[in-house]
């Protein structure tokens, strides 16, 4: 299994709006082959950090999504998240 994590820290006044946007997301990614799930995590800090965690069956499924029109739209919608970091991990134990 592959886990992809985007990490960013929005301005405090934008955090609630971004969380609401994730909660109301279009869910296009859900239909992609090999997609296993998505969680949005928020830290308890005054200026919260947000993590967008997606899980994939394998790298090929994740790559196929990254090449899709759905991903392009999602990326455009999240362009305001300056300073975001992105990392991909392989699950090697549970």
Q: What value does the Rg take, in angstroms? A: 14 Å
Number of helices: 3
Biggest sheet: strands, sense, closure?
4 strands, antiparallel
- Considering DSSP H and I runs of 4 or more, what fraction of the residues is helical? 25-40%
Spatial order of the strands forming the largest sheet = 2-3-1-4
- The fraction of residues in strands falls at 25-35%
- Number of beta-strand segments: 4
| Overall pLDDT level | 88
Instruction: Write the H/E string, N to C.
Output: EHEEHHE
Layout of helices and strands:
Blueprint: E1 2-8, H1 12-23, E2 35-42, E3 50-56, H2 59-66, H3 69-77, E4 85-90
Antiparallel strand pairs: 1-3, 1-4, 2-3
Task: Note down, in words, how this protein is organized.
By secondary structure, this protein is an alpha+beta fold. 31% of the residues lie in helices and 30% in strands. The chain is built from 3 helices and 4 strands, in the order βαββααβ. The protein has helices at 12-23, 59-66, 69-77; strands at 2-8, 35-42, 50-56, 85-90. The chain has a 4-stranded antiparallel β-sheet with strand order 2-3-1-4. A hairpin with a 7-residue loop joins strand 2 (35-42) and strand 3 (50-56).
Core attributes:
four-stranded antiparallel beta sheet, 30% strand, alpha+beta, 94 residues
Please summarize what this structure is:
The protein has about 90 residues and is α+β, with helices and mostly antiparallel strands.
